[in-house]
Amino acid sequence: MSEGLELKKTHPSTGRPLGFTLLELLIVMAILGVAAGIGIAQFRTLGQRQQAAAAVDQIRQLFWQGATAAASRGGTNFLLVRSGNTLRVESQVDGSVLRSVTLPSGVTCSLSEGTLATFTSPGKVNFSSSFPANRQFTISANGRTHTLTATLIGEVRRQ
Hints:
Strand content: 25-35%
Largest sheet: 5 strands, antiparallel
Distance between the termini: 82 Å
Helix content: 25-40%
Shape: rod-shaped
Strand order of the largest sheet: 3-2-1-5-6
CATH superfamily of the domain at 54-158: minor pseudopilin epsh domain
Radius of gyration: 30 Å
CATH class of the domain at 54-158: Alpha Beta
Structural class: alpha+beta
Number of helices: 2
C-alpha cells in the first residue's frame, strides 16, 4: 500500500529522481522575468518614438493643408495659430477651424503662441514676426529633437 503513495519517480538505471528542483525552476523564472522587463522597456521606447514621429507628420500636413486650402478657395486666407499645445489652421474670415493638431503629452514645439502665419492665394505663406526668421522650428519628445523648416509654399521639411 505504501507503493501507491510514493510521488517521486526515479530513473530506472541511475536511481536519481526525475523532474526539476525548486532552485532550477526559480532560476528559469528569474531569467524569464528579466527578459520580459527588457522587452516591456523597449516597447515603451518604441511607442514614444512613434508618437513624436506622428506629431511631426501631423504638423507637416497642417501646413500643407493650410496652403492648399488658400490656393483652392481663391480669396479666402487661412491663419496658422498656436494656442497651448494645439496648432490649428482657421479661416481668417469667420474663424472656422479647417484642421487642428494637439501635441501629445511629452511632445514640445518651439513655435510661440499666437498667429504664426497666413496662407494666401495662390498657396503662398506669409510668416508673422513671431515665427523664426530662418523658418526653422523644433519638435522634441523623449530626448529626441526634430528640426523642421517651413517653406514659402507650405511645405515643411525635416532637417
